[in-house]
Amino acid sequence: MNRSRTTRVAAIAAVSTLALGLAACTPGGDNGDNDGDVTITWWHNATSDPLQGLWEDVAAEFEEANPGVTVEVTGYQNEDLQRTLIPNALQSGDAPDVFMVWPGGEVRAQAEAGHLKDLTEVAADTIEEMGAAVSPWQLDGKQYAIPYAFGAAGIWYNTELFDKAGIEGTPETLSELADAVTALKAIDVAPIAVGAGDLWPAGHWWYQFAVSSCPTDVLETAIPEFDFSDPCWVEAGEQLEEFIATDPFNEGFLATPGQTGADSSNGLIANGQAAMEFMGPWNSGTIGALTEDGEVPEWLGWFPFPTVDGAGGDAGSIMGGGDGFGVHVDAPDEAVDLLKYIMSEDVQRRFAETGAGVPTHPGVADALTDPNLIASAAALGEASYVQLWIDSALGPAFGNPLNQAIVNIFAGSGTPQDVVAALEQTAAAQ
Amino acid sequence: MTATHAAPPRVTAPSPAGPAPATPRRRPAADRRKWLEIALFAGPALVVFVGFVIVPVALAAVYSLYNWNGLGPLERFIGLDNYVRAFSDPLFIKAIGNNATIVIASILVQGPIAIAVALLLNRRMRGRTVIRALIFVPYVLAEVIAGLSWKLLLSPRGGVNAVLEAIGLGDLARPWLADPDIALWVMFGILSWKYLGFAILLMLAGLQGVPEELHEAAAIDGANWWQTQWRITLPLLGPTIRIWIFLSMIGSLQLFDMVWVTTKGGPIGATNTMAVYMIQYGQGQYGYGSAIAVILFVISLVVAVIYQRFAMRRDLAGALTSGVR
To answer: What ranges do the domains of chain B cover?
Structure first.
């Protein structure tokens, strides 16, 4: 009798505790304006120093300069952040105030859904200062995010291995690149590392050939309109096929990841097993993270992608891209102030000094110390046209079908026409 | 999903001829208390189950009818287009085929090995405990850690190739996970390594339920060890084997972690599974991803129901009906 009663009392107690526990889990009010205290959440993609430390310093300084403002700053792994965390946060209505925004089709998708604050007026001065680099983050003439870094893709290489293989200078045409490949094979290193296991690093090769083959006006109109009828898109695949036929890539490249672990294409460069990698301006940082001492190796060099003999595109066109921050549409005004501070000349200068990328602020170019980034920035400055990474430019739905079709060419099981077909099919489903 | 929710035992026994025996009349208060208790104990679980299982499944079914990038409002209704698209994508068809291959290969390869090892380990022998523990170690390892280890071991310059070269079998060295012709079978090898321990443990547990007396009786009748296993142990192990097949099938159909960590479905889709395809192609296309999720759900459900209906009918007979045989 008594036992059943105590059991029941215990059960009720347990259930009420559970209910209270659940109640405690419901989200509290954020950005509460009571007492003038404001909390800003800021999500970025730096998960290691020096950039992670810099952003933490920036947040602390902003808090100090703005009493009553708390900045909660967190770095997440790049793809997780962009593909999972941010879309979920936007959809759930509990979005961060300042967050990483990719250019092109990516910013378009978020802006069209009404998640991004129009910065055209509220950050007009900052946008003006940054110059032409801001345009990939615009939609219908409105600015929805501001880039803090923008750089050109190019070939990162091991100068010591080049010396050992007797390669003089750096390849300027595709046939010179092929000669370098032959010379590097002779000293028994993988000439070029590519992380086709992650798809997009292989995708970059096709994008580059498309930039070489397609005239500027085709690139400018075809991508936003999803019109891939120009023969240059097939030509790009044919050039890629021809190049792959010279067998320039590391063994097992189909399963090689891009940036994680000693076995990734970054890792092969870092430990001297491969001589070249075609990659964006962040590469010295990601290679540096994989060396034994965690430093960017001194032998690391950079040169622009060689010109493609007989290709129909403009020789001055290059491929590049960058990282920007946007502000959520419901964020407090202080979030815009934080963004302005991140883009300020002082912070941009310190960003340049970390060597983590090429800053967008034109006034800080002299603060770049890494010769490779200086070369990358110079190439960007000289370019007649800058094409954004094509998967970013097209938008989130295109990445996988496009890159998979490209990797199929790498594997010898796909054709140049298949890539265009994948583009057209994905476009049709939009 | 397993049919463990037993129906309440029937209390009204079939009455013999004659006036119905006076059933004990329940007081209404007691009835109310019983329902209160049921609500109290089952309520929270039911709320959680509905909120985190039923609603998401239903929502996925709804999303799958829309062209939705996950950012804007749900407004572009396209009917069954996402399903048509899925079934006309050769990569997805290949993923279904890969899942089916893993299901069948698991049953045909892992099952017999597990039974054989369990039978051996069920005999009294020196070091039995140590061997049992060793066999179970891979299953205890986190899937991500196991996957990363194998990825490094199987890479072109990894441990496996180094060992092959060291023992003079350098010709066999290859980029194991990068060769589309063999990648699926290498993946199956890793999965077998990981899950054999669980199968063996299950079989060993099943063997504990085989009465020793039957073996003694068989021994008296002059049966040798082989005959005893074949005629007595294996038939009595049947229920365990069938349950293991069921778990193995469902696990193989939903295979994700190991593939994601080691190959992400590559090279060129050679190791792709439905779940991996769903993640890769659902990015930025949540309607399409939801359609894949629904297809995966339906396939798993159909396989589970058919298997339970036919293969496990006898095993479940006691669980689903009253205790009377």
So the answer is: 90-313
Does residue A33 have a pLDDT over 50?
no
Share of chain B above pLDDT 70, in %: 89
| DSSP-derived 3-state class of residue A191 | strand
Q: What is the ipTM of this complex?
A: 0.78
* CA distance, residue A77 to nearest chain B CA (Å): 15
Q: Which residue of B has its CA nearest to A412?
A: B268
**pLDDT > 80? residue B317:** no
Q: What is the pLDDT of residues A374-385, one digit of tens each?
A: 998 888 888 888
Does A122 reach chain B within 8 Å, measured CB to CB? Answer: no
Cross-chain CB nearest to A400 (options B180, B263, B283): B283
Nearest by CB to B71, from A113, A255, A399: name it.
Answer: A113
Distances (CA, A) of B284 to A41, A99, A110, A429, B111: 24, 18, 11, 12, 40
Phi-psi group of A166: left, alpha or beta (phi > 0 → left; psi -120 to 50 → alpha; rest → beta): left
What digits encode the pLDDT tens for the residues A163-180? Answer: 999 999 999 999 999 999
Closest CA to A325 of A65, A165, A12, A116: A116
- Give the CATH architecture of domain B90-313: Orthogonal Bundle (1.10)
pTM score: 0.81
